[in-house]
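Appendix B. Raw example, untouched.
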Amino acid sequence: MQPFDALTMRAVLSEAKPLLIGRKVDKVYQNARDEIVFSMRAKAGMTNLLLSAQSAYGRICLVRQAQLNQSDKPKPNHSQSQFLLLLRRHLTSSTLVGIEQPTGERTADLIFSCTDEVGGTSLKILTAEVMGRHSNLIFWDKNTEKILTASHVVTQEMSRQREVAAGLRFVRPPKQDKPNIFTVSKEDFFARADDLIEKVQQDVGAPLIAPTVEQWLITTFTGLGRQLSEELVASTGLKSSIQEAVKDSNFKTILWEKSLALQTTDHFKPAMRLDLSRYTVLSWWAGVEDESVWRPFPSANDMVDEYYKSVENREQFQQLRERLRSELKNEIEKLENRISAASQHVTAAEDLDQLKRSGDLILAHLNEIKPGQETLQCANLYGENGATQTIKLNPNLNGSQNAQFFYRQFAKSRSRLTAASAACAEATKRLETVRGQSEAVERAADSEELRRLKDNLIGRKQSELPKTAPAKPNDKKKSKAKILSLTSSDGWTIYVGRNRHENDQLLSRLAQPNDLWLHVLGQGGAHVLIKVPASKQEPPLNTIKEAAQVAARLSKASTGSKVRVVYTQCKHVKKLGKDKPGLVRYENEKTLEIDTSTPMPKCMKTLFSN
């Protein structure tokens, strides 16, 4: 991931200023402790500005109204924070009169003209400092220079260089003892480059010299990070190695011209890599036109908003997947241990017939048992001719009591065997379900799908608890989970159920009697539905084969090359019951043999791209 840098802030603000200056603040939202959204109104409409001081995803950019409605509305647990209340008190209906960014710094001042209770006007400034773990949103009065509030209070114990708290004087972050790449003069740049060249030529100890030009730029100047320095050096054509780069007689001139372009450019071409490893507002990278690797954007604000939302979503997706993996792994281990323990009880109970036979033999030889006798040796009525059996007796019991003892042991063992067999069968069935859920987690393509799987797990766990009260109706929003769909090469709509609840919804909500239902034969997997319009009778064979490919690839049999898939009309498919969502019985089916080793149709590639 690429952090938000000073150049990106400059690109974003250069686009945003004309849309924001002179606008009034309509509403102030707080998404989190360190994230604020301003809704600014004007005759042209509403504009929304996001200020984030998160340590990893800190940024400033415009966000679209649709995105605000979906994900940027205030959360209830943040709506009453003191930080938000003070911002609303001072800034609601105020006018944004200026936006200033100190050259080369990752800070921006939003200057508001505010009217107090008695009609007086004053200037208030919200300073956004986007500096990694030192990021902050500080609200202060321009006239008194006193801090009114901040998203992060910094005490003397936390920082000996700078305190941030209400009532203290606002001071800028301390500067580093080296020039900024956006303000350095040509003379200073050349002097430092000459010093580098001299040290390399004199072969002064390697620890004094950065091994690459990129690292030399980062250690010599402020204002640029690893990604920007790599882009700058790559655009010069110089070798990355210091030892090789300084051999070019135009080394310092080439490097200075690119650094000067950083200082003066006002032409930005934003793009981000599809793998989210980096972005650019300059597009100096070779191959940036390749849209299979890079995605261009019309504005830096759109690019920044999309990039960090995508990074956050990916991080949430990975964290949720790991959490579900861990939960399912623990569940699988518990079930395997339960099956193992139950199997041991089953094995131990296999000699229960011997207990009953011992009781029968004692009763058959009661007249041979004397008081205090410890063993009985008698003919084995159940064995081969002439075989004898020795039975251990309790000398404190008579013959009839000894027989009853063996019968009681037989009854207990039989009960244990029945319970252990039932527990083993139940755990085995549950294990198959959990393994199917584990496979679904691995196939999941986005966070929404994982959250649905998580809800399924929670619902199953709750259903296993003792019921103490009537269950509440499910939330309507949860019942409207979006079913994955794609279009076949012939233009037919295909729906795919990726878990038991989606499979259930396919039949209960989407399916019509003449629609075609598909499923892999004899294995767990996705239910697939081909929608058949009322004006048509049956999909073409090519569409059926493509839908069968989906069913085959989203099943436990997907690892084999040849997979058999059954299909039939939905009127011949019946659900087994409400307590068994996704389980069905069917009839009048036909079978297709699908080769999953063949290239998948173009319409399916987006489905399996993740």
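End of appendix B.
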